[in-house]
Amino acid sequence: MSKSNRNALGLTRRQAMALGAGAAFASAMPLASALAADKVIFRTNWLFYGSHGIFFLGIDKGYYAQDNLDVVVKQGDGSGATTRLVANKDSTFAYCSAVTMMKLAAQGAPVISVATIDATGTDAVIVNPDSGIKTFKDLEGKKVLTTAGAGVNTLFPVACKNAGVDIDKIQLTNVADSALVQSYLQGLAPAILGGIDDKPAEIEANGGKTPIAFNYADYGVYQPGYAIVAHRDTVKDNPDLCKRFVHATLEAVKEAQAHPDEAIDSLVNWEASESEDKEKKQARQVLDVTLSILYSPNNKDKRLGLNVDADWQSALDLLKQYDNVQTDMKASDFYTNDFVPTSL
Fold it and tell me: pTM here?
């Protein structure tokens, strides 16, 4: 999927259609309600990729408009940076790594999860199949590329320890996110840190072989994946806004489950990109991973968007034990389910 920035001045055909649909919807509403649409800045974790199609589909299908929300989706630059943008009130809500958000919240950032989208972690070491690396232990003595501030960095030391790997023997090197996969494909390192929800598909789309993935979850790292994050002031002072945003977003998730190709079309058109079939295939592979992990094994009632306490507790325990996170906060202090509907 092309990760170029949207053209801020031009409208794609789908954007024009979406605006037209919004106008039609507004004309059918009482005037006071139409004028009450709340402007929301929604920040993604990275440059746009397949999973983000959910949010653009929500705009195109009118789910946000139906909840009186005028949503603008902006690209992020890593879950750490995205969380900070919510903390300083640059962005109203964000889609970012739950674990990264927890670390920053434990340090005092006034942020909280209002829903979980990717219910299990997708963090992994992505390995070139021709590198000779067959096990996690084989990473010792090798260079592994990553991006500063990426959520995947947070629990890498935990996965290493659980796998019996000396992390000090791994040369962990930061590169720009836009250069991560290309550096890997050019052979600058035999492995990268990344999500199984995007990096394998991106590698294949750019001519690489299907990589080997050492998923952190296979090494005792249990955690919620990606959450919708809000400022605590927003939760306290404007709970109705939170309720409407969560509701509309989860409706968009359901729509993406039913019509995943439409979600990809929405992403492509809002990016104003001329994506080829292979790029759409890549984006669809990424989206499919997100849609396959909407419920953790601990979510017994299969309640979409639920912040599952057992998963957050596991993540907090790991952070305290292995990542030197010091906090008196309980797992339940990092999230609220007040806005997650019991059914949709």
Answer: 0.78
